[in-house]
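Margin note: ligand = adenosine-5'-triphosphate.
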Amino acid sequence: MSQRLRVAVEAPQHSGLSAPLDYLSEQPIAPGSLVRVPLGRRELAGIVWPGPSEEGAAALDEAQLRPVLAVLDALPPLSKRWCELVEFAASYYQRSIGEVALSVLPPQLRELSPEQLQARLKKLDKKPKKLQAEASPEPAPRPEPPTLSPDQALVLARLDELLLTPGDTAPPPVLLYGVTGSGKTEVYLRAAEHALSQGRQVLVLVPEINLTPQLEARFAERFAGTPMVSLHSALTPAQRLGNWLQAHLGRARLVLGTRLAVFASLPELGLIAVDEEHDPSYKQQDGARYSARDLAVYRARLEKVPVILGSATPSLESWQHANTGRYLRLALPGRIGGGALPRVRLFDMNTLPRRKGVSTALSPPLLAALRQRLEAGEQSLVFLNRRGYAPVLHCAECGWKSECPHCSAYRVFHKADRTLRCHHCGFSQRVPHECPDCGNQDVAPLGRGTEQLEEQLAAALPGARVARIDADTTRLKGTLESQLQAVHEGEVDILVGTQMVTKGHDFRRITLVAAINPDSALFSSDFRAPERLFALLMQAAGRAGRDAEQAARSEMWVQTWHPEHALYRALLQHDFEAFARSQLAERESAGLPPYSHLALLRAEARTAEAAQAFLSAAARWAQALPEARDLMIYPPVPMSVARVANMERLQMLVESPTRGALQRLLWLWMPELHALKREHRGLQRWAVDVDPLAI
Ligand SMILES: Nc1ncnc2c1ncn2[C@@H]1O[C@H](COP(=O)(O)OP(=O)(O)OP(=O)(O)O)[C@@H](O)[C@H]1O
Ligand SMILES: [Zn+2]
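Resulting structure:
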């Protein structure tokens, strides 16, 4: 007799199919198994889902159900807990289970037939050696782990208690609050060692791919011989599948990855560490807009394993959880070796004599300081959060500016390949020789990016070896690693870069860090902008003086027009706690997160009117519900870059005093939004972003 099964498939979002679908099978198939099923005229991958059929599906006659086509039974099923994690993520971020479940699997896995999978697994069997070879490129002699600092020892003693508690209840999430260079990584390493020695798998999350190589090297060195894999978007599809399988089969004991790795299948998970937990890149920005940090906390509770969230500048959400006792705060208040944090110097740009229309990127005192470091044979890091040569090209005759024809933004001038490039839609053209409007020969760059800064530094400091690291210089695979290597090996005197180089790296020779123009974030309409800026500057400062010998001489320069700003005052003292206190007080009085819960409804259309009409209709519908009583639905507004690739983008903010009330409204709202989309023909796309990061 044939059996009825639920199967999660990746149905397109607009189809409104949100629950797993029912299929028939001759034999029982274990929940969590990967299968091939028909959907419409296509055949796709699906996952047999645990739990009973939905009401609608259960009402279907067996004769109306289609059969499962194949079972990929060479693969052990995904665990029940993995399915629970996916189900939670889907429900919390308002997506279908099938979409989340399938989109977090390695893309190649969704393409394979049972035979192809078997062949792939056979190949993997032949390569257990390779797994270790990858983990440690050269079998270096294993160094002795350092003696723990007293602070580290205290933190680990507390962690040990948690790790040792038998797994009936989930231990509280740990917020590891440690200043830059305080040895947080060593804490992850020791905690990992503990979990590994108990036969458990360990998951370590990092915010960006560019941070994985160094951390990977540190783990590989410490755990030589322990199979380790990485999971991030820069892997080839074949690597990603291979690594995912190693984790799923329990062969890889350590998994290091970016946000997508939070969904790795880890049958023996024993510990999760989230490094730089405050980092915005933990939030996925399309599809299911999940926060990997928040899901890591959820997953740890589900699996009753410890989770460590580490940061020198925790997110205010996590900080508040620690204040209320939901998270356990463990602190590393000092740098390793007792080194001081760099002295912060706010340079007041108002004191420079102003020439008409010209602002200097590099103040003479900063240049002098850079020269001094150069002469002492020390490295400096100069950062500016804007790549390219200049953000705008401008004609002084007629006022023409290098606007993007498709976006409400300027195209950026890239000197190296002489292009004008839009950083929003990618539209790129050769730089015009003359003004396209009036023919004037004299079109000039306005403002500056890293490319120009590199040029100016090289000109101002002859003989200095200046190198630049940003998204433009690291496009090719392997270039970032080799560039960072050159910095580590002292082949660079001055490193110019975007925020890419300001976080996480353990630079040993940098003694001066300078932020060229960080002011703009002070006046952003996004309430999280100050929090992000403060974290960025603290992180950047943390790159200086990491060698205790040099710490006392190290400096962090900030060139600013607003040296009296409270944010900079807190930075002067490296006082995250004071900064967090004042921000939290502001948030509380304004009713902003973490004191309220937000969702954004976004809409895109060819015209702003069409997007507006959809959002307004959605708002009217929701406001009529009793469930919306305590919620605030704000009027739709254009996004900060209103038009991208000829699409007008608007958003509408929903604010709720509780998570529960927000979730209840969203649940009622979703089917209506699907229906409204069908009525509003002009609308291209809509999406809900729960706990949005950028407002
Ligand atoms: N107990 C120890 N004894 C000696 N050196 C240590 C010890 N713990 C860590 N270190 C070294 O101190 C340096 C800083 O440590 P680590 O990179 O772990 O700091 P961190 O807190 O993660 O810093 P950041 O937040 O800035 O990334 C590293 O080079 C590390 O090898
Ligand atoms: Zn554009």
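Residues 659-679 form the longest helix (21 residues).
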